[in-house]
């Protein structure tokens, strides 16, 4: 479609981390007539973490025409069916946040509603009625089938090495015409009206552009330092501000098709299985635990020897006041960050790129209106994701440390308080605009944390008990049977990788 207004002739991206190269690949593909240039500094480097993703990355890769097997081979990637939460409700408990389906969510046959009514007579928890949850339990993986049967009603994401993903997209973006410039930006030249004119590099070169994408990471060189956009601080709600990260050898066990996050004394740890290694990290609140004790707690989580020393990262939850100001758009860490509990950072990057492309190509409005719309959407989305992350904490029964007492007793944002009320009082999963997570995700967390409605639709009781029981039993059996016949995650992955040039060498210690 030809846009009704002029597209920028030159887009300059500052930063060559995952956000910079995702932006370059997306823009070079969608706007072939526009010159795209990425300025990055090897001396500064990238953040070098980020391993778990969200299912919509598949659409982003598809838009770029990326072959899944090649992508998995290039990034050391594995498949992800969701996240297992351990010790969150209280120590010793676990539940699964699925990328699947729990059957009807409303009406007389709402599956969760019939389960709540008759669950005592069912084997296992609500997760037994969700195919990818059962697949994950048994270490199985297969891509969804065609059609609309049970085997088609789930999606999946990936675990991968974000640095290798950046390098993979760097190659792809350059093949599509993007240009790479190595150099450190030391000053920024501006027009009289405040717009950015050019980036000035340490060696004296200038890189001029019409539109600038700030992907400079936490430094936020353009949006923060140059344009002075303040920071909307979420740390009063989300005080976690540090992370230790360490790669470990692959454990001898089967390759898990899910991320595992375990609640700890003052935060939580992640375990992310990649092809050649397992990523571990501990995200914590430095107000509630010392860095050294947090490091020890991380090392105690490892199930195989570390491959390197643990690295400490510092961050603050929140986002820039504006994501688009003058002719600068901040994407990735330069725009904001929320703790990586639900793997939302890379999701926010490709979502933002999609919005920018849509606004640039489809809207006839001049730039200030585009910027205002983009800022409103991004701000809402960060707030929605903040609420979803807070949900994991506020429902916990843990009170065993100062951190958990704080996280369970603090005042909540009104938007989240209303959602909790609607679910508890009426069994309604309320949705706002620009949600990052759909009703199924909210349901998985509410029920996984033991938070069930006190009142539900009277229609549920109109369904004869025998009929509802038969429906539940039928779904339970069908899911168990489907999962039992699926390949092990590792076998499926190896078959997928077998045709690629960079197929993984066989592992000596595979059982
Ligand atoms: C502890 C932790 C865990 C995370 N886990 C996940 C996860 O599981 N899933 C997920 O989706 N995300 C995760 N993230 C976020 C993820 O790492 C980032 O969103 C992603 O890597 C993109 O980073 P970026 O490109 O915005 O920034 P960076 O990787 O920091 O890149 C910044 C770029 O800007 C360049 N640059 C900066 N200043 C200058 C300058 N003056 N001149 C020239 N170049 C400059 C740098 O050289 C670099 O190329 C995590 C983040 C943290 C902190």
Automatic annotation (TrEMBL):
Keywords: Oxidoreductase, Signal
Entry superkingdom: Bacteria
GO MF term (any one): oxidoreductase activity
EC class of the enzyme, as a word: oxidoreductase
E.C. number: 1.14.19.-
Alphabetical list of SUPFAM superfamilies matching this protein: FAD/NAD(P)-binding domain (SSF51905)
Pfam families membership: Trp_halogenase
Keyword Signal: yes
Signal peptide range: 1-24
Oxidoreductase among keywords: yes
Family annotation (InterPro entries): FAD/NAD-bd_sf (IPR036188), Flavin-dep_Halogenase_NPB (IPR050816), Flavin_halogenase (IPR006905), Trp_halogen (IPR033856)
Protein name in UniProt: Tryptophan halogenase family protein
Phylogenetic placement of the source organism: Bacteria, Pseudomonadati, Pseudomonadota, Betaproteobacteria, Burkholderiales
């Amino acid at each position: 479609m030809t846009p009704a207004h002029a597209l920028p002739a030159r887009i300059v991206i500052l930063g060559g981390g995952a956000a910079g190269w995702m932006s370059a690949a997306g823009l070079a593909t969608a706007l072939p007539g526009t010159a795209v240039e990425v300025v990055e500094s090897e001396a500064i480097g990238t953040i070098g973490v980020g391993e778990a993703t969200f299912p919509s990355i598949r659409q982003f890769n598809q838009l770029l025409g990326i072959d899944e097997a090649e992508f998995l081979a290039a990034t050391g990637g594995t498949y992800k069916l969701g996240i297992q939460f351990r010790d969150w409700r209280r120590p010793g408990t676990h539940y699964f946040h699925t990328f699947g389906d729990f059957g009807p969510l409303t009406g007389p046959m709402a599956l969760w509603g019939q389960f709540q009514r008759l669950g005592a007579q069912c084997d296992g928890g609500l997760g037994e009625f969700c195919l990818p949850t059962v697949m994950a339990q048994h270490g199985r993986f297969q891509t969804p089938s065609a059609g609309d049967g049970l085997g088609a009603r789930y999606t999946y994401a990936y675990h991968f090495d974000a640095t290798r993903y950046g390098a993979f997209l760097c190659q792809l973006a350059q093949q599509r015409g993007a240009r790479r410039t190595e150099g450190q930006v030391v000053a920024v030249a501006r027009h009289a009206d405040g717009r950015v004119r050019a980036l000035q590099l340490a060696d004296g070169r200038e890189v001029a552009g019409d539109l600038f994408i700030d992907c400079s990471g936490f430094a936020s060189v353009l949006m923060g330092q140059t344009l002075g956009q303040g920071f909307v601080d979420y740390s009063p709600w989300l005080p976690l501000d540090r992370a230790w990260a360490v790669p470990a050898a692959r454990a001898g066990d089967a390759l898990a098709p899910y991320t595992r996050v375990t609640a700890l004394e003052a935060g939580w740890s992640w375990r992310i299985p990649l092809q050649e290694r397992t990523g571990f990290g501990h995200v914590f609140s430095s107000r509630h635990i010392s860095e050294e004790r947090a490091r020890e707690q991380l090392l105690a989580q490892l199930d195989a020897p570390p491959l390197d020393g643990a690295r400490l990262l510092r961050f603050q939850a929140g986002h820039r006041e504006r994501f688009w100001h003058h002719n600068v758009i901040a994407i990735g860490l330069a725009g904001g960050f929320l703790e990586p509990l639900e793997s939302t950072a890379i999701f926010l990057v490709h979502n933002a790129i999609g919005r920018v492309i849509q606004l640039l190509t489809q809207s006839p409005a001049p730039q200030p209106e585009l910027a205002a719309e983009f800022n409103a959407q991004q701000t809402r989305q960060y707030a929605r994701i903040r609420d979803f992350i807070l949900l994991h904490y506020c429902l916990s029964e843990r009170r065993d440390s100062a951190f958990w007492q704080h996280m369970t007793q603090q005042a909540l944002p009104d938007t989240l308080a209303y959602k909790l009320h609607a679910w508890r009082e009426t069994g309604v999963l309320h949705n706002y605009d620009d949600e990052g997570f759909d009703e199924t995700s909210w349901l998985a967390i509410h029920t996984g944390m033991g938070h069930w409605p006190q009142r539900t639709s009277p229609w549920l009781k109109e369904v004869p008990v025998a009929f509802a029981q038969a429906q539940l039993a039928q779904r339970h059996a069908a899911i168990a049977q489907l999962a039992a016949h699926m390949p092990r995650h590792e076998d499926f992955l190896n078959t997928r990788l077998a045709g690629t040039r960079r197929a993984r060498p066989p592992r000596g210690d595979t059982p």
